[in-house]
Amino acid sequence: MLQDSIAGLEAEISAQELATAAQLDAFRIAYLGRKGRLADLFDQLKTVPADQKRAVGQQLNQLKQAAQARHDEAQQALEAATANQPADAGYDYTLPPVPHALGTRHPLSLVREEMLRIFGRIGFSVAEGPEIEDDWHNFTALNFPENHPARDMQDTFFIAPPAPKSPLDAADSGAPDVPLLLRTHTSNVQVRVMETQAPPIRSVMPGRVYRNEAISARAHMMFHQVEGLFVDEGVSFADLKQTVYYFVNELFGADINIRFRPSFFPFTEPSAEIDITCLICKGKGCNICKYSGWVEIGGCGMVDPNVLENSGIDPEKYSGYAWGMGIERIAMLKYQIKDLRLFTENDLRFLRQFEAV
Ligand code: DAH
């Protein structure tokens, strides 16, 4: 009987799962389509006795509406769910990421940090001071007498004080009444450290320095130094030598020779220049070491008692040693770099050869 078929189809329809587009399609074709199961039953209406036709027809219509409603609801739900997904839903999130392009450390940073680490291991802590400096800290306190030719050893960039806007402003322009300059060496920080700290002092002072030089492969108007200062009771030149030996052997290895060549600096007495075996030719002689087999890496000496006194430390009680080394010079030896200008030109072909960050 048709009524039984209707009941059976009703049960079948409500058992269908309508979660995917494919299931929806199949449902529509199987039950609602022109050749579907419902159309089939509508065809059979003509076999129903006339007195029952109306009731059975209503039943069939209700089933058709219910089936259509189920289909439409499921379709809306599916559309809403897909609309909330990102547009690139087809993207495979398990793929490995494209690596970021990493930078490399600048060779001067690498060398500076290695130098500070080596001195740090024997108790030196880092101090810093200003690059714009006054004459006292860059020269006078360091025992450079006024108008003494030693000041010409380092061609200085002086900073012109701001011009007063009008003669009335001149007295009150706010400009410092001491001449300012770009520090020519990191030795200014020695004075600043001694002014503010009591011995024992063990400091390393890295920084940038400036000199009025024409730029070439071997000279620059801006470069870097690491200054060192040790002040305590009973410090001798033997302590200085031992510290320099330790540093050079840590940085370059045990087979490097070191020599102290007598020299002059106003702030040390006695003074020496530190030479090491030329690393380019291993001491045989080349154009970098001017065929001497030695290259200079810095200056050093016993802190002049005048400098201690100028900085507020009693030279009767304390003595000290100091040094100043060029970071560029050491980086050139370590990495066999032959032109100072490479450090500041930012050529990626040069910079990419160094350690990654
Ligand atoms: N300030 C010197 C320069 O720039 C280097 C130097 C020499 C620093 C001897 C020192 C030192 O502390 O004791 O040429």
Automatic annotation (TrEMBL):
Molecular function per GO: ATP binding; magnesium ion binding; phenylalanine-tRNA ligase activity; tRNA binding
Cofactor descriptive note: Binds 2 magnesium ions per tetramer.
Compartments (UniProt record): Cytoplasm
A GO BP entry: phenylalanyl-tRNA aminoacylation
UniProt-annotated binding residues for Mg(2+): 269
Cofactor (UniProt): Mg(2+)
Keyword list, A-Z: Aminoacyl-tRNA synthetase, ATP-binding, Coiled coil, Cytoplasm, Ligase, Magnesium, Metal-binding, Nucleotide-binding, Protein biosynthesis
Keyword S-adenosyl-L-methionine tagged: no
Pfam families: Phe_tRNA-synt_N (PF02912), tRNA-synt_2d (PF01409)
Gene Ontology cellular component list: cytoplasm
InterPro entries in UniProt: aa-tRNA-synth_II (IPR006195), aa-tRNA-synth_II/BPL/LPL (IPR045864), Phe-tRNA-synth_IIc_asu (IPR004529), Phe-tRNA_ligase_II_N (IPR004188), Phe_tRNA_ligase_alpha1_bac (IPR022911), Phenylalanyl-tRNA_Synthase (IPR002319), tRNA-bd_arm (IPR010978)
SUPFAM superfamilies: Class II aaRS and biotin synthetases, tRNA-binding arm
Coiled-coil spans in chain: 57-84
Gene3D superfamilies to which the protein is assigned, alphabetical: Bira Bifunctional Protein, Domain 2
UniProt KW Protein biosynthesis keyword: yes
Positions of the Aminoacyl-transfer RNA synthetases class-II family profile domain: 111-353
PROSITE patterns: AA_TRNA_LIGASE_II (PS50862)
Record note on quaternary structure: Tetramer of two alpha and two beta subunits.
NCBIfam families for the chain: pheS
Family: Belongs to the class-II aminoacyl-tRNA synthetase family. Phe-tRNA synthetase alpha subunit type 1 subfamily.
Name the record gives this protein: Phenylalanine--tRNA ligase alpha subunit
Natural source organism: Hymenobacter coccineus
Gene of this entry: pheS
